[in-house]
Amino acid sequence: MEQAARDLDVPLAAPCRGSGFCGACKVKFVSGAPEPSPWERVHLTRDQLSQGIRLGCITRITADSILSIPRQSTMIRIANQHYGYQLAPPAQRAIIRASASDATGDLAHHLPRVALRDLPRELTLHTQASKLRRVELGANRGDLLGVAAVVDGGRLTGWLLDLRTGEELSWSQAKLIGDIDGGSVHEENAVSATRRLVRALCSSAYRRTDDVADVVISGAKLTSDSGHDLLRASGAGLDPIADAAACAAVAAGCIDAGATLVVSVQPFPWVLAVHARRAWLAAAVDWDGAAVGFAPLGKEKVVERVSFVDDLRLQHSGDSPSGIGLGAAIDCTAELRRAGVLDERGKLAREKGNDLQAAIAGRLSEVHGKVTLRLSPGDVLPGVEFRQAHVTAVQRLRAAMMVATRGVLTRACLEPEDLDRVVLVGDSAHWGVRNATDIGLLPDVSPATFRPLPDAVSTGARLALLSAQASDDIRSLAEDCERMSAPQHGGEWAEELYLHLRPRPQRLDASEKPLLSFGQRSTAATDGPA
Fold this sequence. Notes:
The protein is an alpha/beta fold. The chain has helices at 2-7, 38-43, 46-50, 187-205, 240-251, 326-339, 355-361, 388-411, 433-438, 456-466, 468-480, 491-495; strands at 26-31, 53-55, 66-68, 75-78, 81-86, 91-98, 121-128, 131-137, 145-152, 155-162, 168-175, 180-181, 184-185, 212-218, 231-233, 260-264, 270-275, 278-283, 302-303, 323-324, 364-367, 370-375, 384-387, 421-425, 450-453, 482-485. The strands form 8 sheets. Strands 25-24-16-17-18-26 form a 6-stranded mixed β-sheet, with helices on both faces. A 5-stranded mixed β-sheet has the order 11-10-9-14-15. Strands 2-1-3 form a 3-stranded antiparallel β-sheet.
């Protein structure tokens, strides 16, 4: 029947692709209803079967029939945004009334005969993906909940969702105990943190932990025997960066879109190229921005964006900033390079060739033998320090990003101008696109090509929890993507350390006229064209 509906251009949701386990494609036969299949006896009650309700994806029409297709469920909505997947979670709960005669055929190894020995009984069948997890006596009509979690530095961040409605019920974090290897948490640490996270989520939402039927985690190494019956990886499970990249790509709608580049710096820089349902991934696992002292996003006192104004004052709101973030370091590096205060090797200079250089030179000092630029928010409030180490870290990041981007585009047989979209994920979503492009962190394409999506990885994990189709797409992308390395050594990488600015017209847009003005986190990652 699914094929017939497709031929007639009638929408019929079948997220499980005809395997019959999700129960999302219910249709009602007005006349000519075929005999129910074993899976329909699992997912549908006796009353539904008697009313002519069947599963459209597995029903074969053998005679003239009249049927109606109910209105399909709406698209998944996460953080007030709609995504192109129907709500059909891999975890399901079916309540059936069965007798010994039902324990035949396809269900012979599923239904417990001992439970059906005396009289027909109500049973609750719990499934996850295509596996029957357990069978309970009686009708368990409790909540059907799921948890989506991502590894976020030394923490596990998670969301509790209602699998029947997609509603987000609570949010919490759990600290990861133990070492993090290659940016991902080890399996035993992930299981331990997940248990604590599930308890915290259910406690804050006043729900029972027994009602959690599915747990999806992105960014952890998991095997089939994870020690947690409900825990599964968002993607392939053995390559956490591939899992996270696949989550971001699915959340950004890259699967069937044109040539797309996905860029992130969490937990270290990685670049994913997606084209014609194929993917290429390059990661620079050696780069460690935390070692330089970049303040992480999400802190109220972090300077996140910088631009030049005439008086070199720090414009701010709220508390005085006490640290500089990666985005601000990129802005400052690009602006100082344009002003001639940084040479191509990234060294802070003291020359006073013009008024701007003279103003900046007056703020240069030496701290522990290193040249430091003092950025002051005003006459009273203390300032923050932009150090030589920040410039060096930006240079190392620039080299890693250029090598990784060139590698994936070459393998995908693409040029930068072939890209339809560049999706900026995580911290990179808050970069100033013009500055990042000028110093080579991002490909030199039109500003309209960039799309900031800071929560792409967590959104992808939630899609994997709420949609069997999204879960399949993420797993397929993670398993099939070609993985490459972007090591921070070698001649090609060393050449990219030099700060060669890309040529731009010598005029300033209105949004570029302020010097060293620091604002709060910018929600618009794209700047106007020069």
